[in-house]
Design goal:
With 289 residues, the protein is an alpha+beta fold. It has helices spanning 2-10, 71-80, 84-92, 102-112, 115-141, 145-166, 175-182, 184-195, 200-215, 219-222, 224-232, 239-243, 255-264; strands at 18-25, 39-45, 53-59, 62-69, 94-98, 237-238, 268-274, 282-288. A 5-stranded mixed beta sheet has the order 3-4-2-1-5, with helices on both faces. Strands 6-8-7 form a 3-stranded antiparallel beta sheet. InterPro entries: NT_sf, NTF-like, YgxA-like_substrate-bd.
Length: 289
């Protein structure tokens, strides 16, 4: 195995464009993790022209995929939590080459899961949870039962990810196996929704009720990153100003809904600012309590 790794490394060792190289073997139970290839090579490069470059080839009867990414892209994926495979790669992969210990340091920071990153991920997951939860409520009222089921299942998935993040861990690809060990109560809800002999409507209503009482109580905790931005401002901020904030880019589409809910829950204040001298229109802006 060591000799195989050395052969893989040979082509990168003197390449000035390469910062680090990591190998991820194909886990037989999760072949999609490496797109079905025997080995995935994650190559961190300082050459922006190679960012998102992918090469597939066969070497010594092994199917290999190379994925080239620059550090900024990788760190953005970690912050956003949208590329779930990257978490597994970085935490479980074998570091073969590491200039200035870049990957080692990145892995260490991920394991630490610093507060600012955790709060950001909570905000993203909660915004997605809230949208799916409310959509399910609307569908159930209109008797669109399968749509209600699908949305509450997605909401429950985001709830599970919230619980995992709160516990100090990065959500893995196999979230339900992970949540079963961390919070059996949430896993039980998942079982009730997916395997119960009750009607679809009854199952959806059960989870909606649990969401209302359990997760909605997490709103303030999950929205701390947004509330902190309001607290740092010396004036009320409009929804448009908040949507342009680079720290909120991942929740841009959900911000109006989030702001509305935070106001109704009494967690932030909504103020009306005259938009013209005749005060014919008032712009809604937001400020902390």
């Amino acid at each position: 195995m060591a000799n195989d790794r050395e052969q893989l490394l040979h082509k990168f060792r003197n390449d000035q464009r390469v910062i680090s190289v990591m190998a991820v073997d194909n886990p037989k139970q999760l072949p999609a993790l490496t797109d079905g290839f025997d080995i995935l090579l994650l190559i961190i490069t300082n050459d922006l022209s190679l960012n998102n470059h992918t090469t597939n080839y066969i070497r010594d009867n092994q199917r290999i995929q190379e994925r080239w990414h620059d550090p900024a892209s990788v760190e953005q994926w970690i912050r956003h939590g949208i590329h779930r495979n990257i978490i597994h790669w970085l935490l479980k992969g074998e570091i073969l080459l590491d200039q200035n210990t870049y990957l080692e340091g990145l892995r260490h920071r991920m394991l630490e899961f610093p507060v600012d990153l955790r709060e950001h991920r909570l905000l993203v997951e909660f915004s997605l949870f809230l949208r799916k939860y409310l959509q399910s409520k609307e569908y159930i009222l209109d008797e669109h039962l399968l749509d209600a089921y699908n949305n509450i299942l997605e909401a429950l998935h985001h709830w599970a990810r919230i619980v995992i993040i709160e516990d100090g861990y990065h959500p893995e690809i196999t979230v339900w196996r992970q949540i079963r060990a961390i919070n059996p109560g949430v896993y039980k809800l998942y079982e009730e929704l997916t395997t119960s002999k009750e009607t679809i409507k009854q199952r959806v209503q059960l989870v909606l009720l649990a969401c209302e009482f359990s997760v909605m109580s997490k709103m303030e905790r999950c929205c701390e990153a947004l509330i902190h931005i309001l607290e740092e401002s010396d004036r009320p901020l409009s929804g448009d100003e908040l949507q342009m904030n680079p720290q909120l880019v991942e929740v841009k589409a959900e911000l109006p809904l989030l702001l509305n809910k935070l106001v109704k829950k009494g967690l932030i204040k909504e103020v009306a600012i005259p938009m013209d001298e005749d005060i014919t229109e008032l712009e809604l802006k937001y400020t902390p309590l």
